[in-house]
């Protein structure tokens, strides 16, 4: 067993790094859908916007460019979330499928615009200075940047959990989910809460795109691949659950990494087989939170 672990250490670490990225992306999707009842299929397109922002700002090895990309991506994500809230508001009382079709259309438009502007070639992004090297981990060389991603994912998981579960802002969001009418009766505008949650969720998507750029680069079609993985994470973890998003992301990260390393021909079957198994045992996901109802 120990020998197998040593042989596959790099793949296991890759699984944690992929899981960290998927968590940053999926936690926003999970909160927006699970708490605000908005199925945002443009989430992957927002991720791709972040990746191309990294292409624009990170010229060579530069911390300044990388941090600028993160800042601009955060702002773009907040604005995109606000705009998305306004577009989905007229559909609030209609079936979720209507919102899904709207956000899918937005996703297709954004992806096409990015393809026109940047072309169809894969654009690579260099990690910041100091993180563009490899470090020794139990005798194996491993990229320092991917280790940083694992740390960022864990820190962000703790930060999001603290905000949602231990602050007045989080209490307001949970109250809006549990009883929107009562929150409105207290003089709080539920629409503002929805705008804030959608903004933060979209911001997490664009920031995840920047963080992922040194690993995946930026290319057409990446938005669809990453959205599919994020949806699998959300379904496995359970809607509206931060803990579920983290556990689901780590599970899918390992399935994706080890599956492609050990059984590349059936990796996709293993991925969706894991999803099917979880749905059979726990139809609402491993840690389903409270879901909003219109």
TrEMBL record:
It comes from the Bacteria. Keywords: Amino-acid transport, Cell membrane, Membrane, Transmembrane, Transmembrane helix, Transport. The keyword Transmembrane applies. One of its GO terms (biological process) is amino acid transport. It is found in: Cell membrane. Its main location: membrane. One of its GO terms (molecular function) is transmembrane transporter activity. Belongs to the binding-protein-dependent transport system permease family. LivHM subfamily. This is Branched-chain amino acid ABC transporter permease. It comes from Geodermatophilus sabuli.
């Amino acid at each position: 067993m120990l020998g197998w672990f040593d042989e596959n250490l790099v793949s296991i670490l890759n699984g944690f790094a992929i899981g960290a990225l998927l968590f940053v992306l999926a936690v926003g999707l999970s909160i927006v859908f699970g708490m605000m009842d908005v199925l945002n299929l443009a989430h992957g397109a927002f991720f791709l916007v972040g990746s191309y922002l990294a292409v624009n700002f990170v010229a060579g090895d530069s911390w300044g460019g990388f941090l600028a990309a993160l800042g601009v991506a955060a702002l773009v994500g907040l604005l995109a979330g606000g705009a998305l809230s306004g577009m989905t508001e007229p559909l609030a009382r209609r079936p979720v499928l209507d919102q899904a079709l709207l956000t899918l259309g937005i996703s297709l438009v954004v992806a096409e615009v990015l393809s026109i502007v940047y072309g169809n070639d894969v654009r690579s992004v260099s990690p910041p200075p100091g993180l563009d090297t490899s470090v020794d981990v139990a005798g194996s060389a491993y990229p320092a940047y991917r280790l940083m991603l694992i740390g960022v994912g864990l820190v962000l998981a703790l930060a999001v959990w603290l905000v949602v579960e231990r602050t007045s802002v989080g209490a307001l969001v949970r109250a809006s989910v549990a009883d929107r009418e009562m929150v409105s009766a207290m003089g709080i505008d539920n629409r503002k809460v929805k705008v804030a949650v959608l903004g933060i969720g979209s911001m997490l998507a664009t920031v995840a795109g920047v963080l992922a750029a040194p690993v995946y680069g930026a290319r057409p079609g990446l938005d669809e691949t990453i959205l599919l993985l994020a949806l699998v994470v959300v379904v496995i973890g359970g809607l509206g659950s931060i803990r579920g998003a983290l556990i689901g992301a780590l599970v899918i990260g390992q399935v994706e990494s080890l599956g492609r390393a050990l059984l590349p021909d059936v990796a996709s079957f293993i991925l969706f087989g894991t999803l099917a198994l979880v749905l059979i045992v726990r139809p609402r996901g491993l840690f389903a939170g409270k879901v909003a109802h219109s």
